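call fold(seq) -> tokens
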Amino acid sequence: SNELAWADASLINQHPYTKGWVVRLQPDRDDWREGLLEGVDAPAVYRENFGRWGVAECVHCLGAEV
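ret:
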């Protein structure tokens, strides 16, 4: 488990991809990545969704601005 997140739960919302992780998973199949976005493709999809949802910016994830 992530002792930093247990000590400061705000890390889960503010830094979910770095300091605020909760669990780490190890898939037992090789095809688990199908349908997931990686790297430079993800911000464009976030921007599109933010526009559709009327969200001006990501306010929860520090360092993950799109």
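The chain has three helices and no strands.
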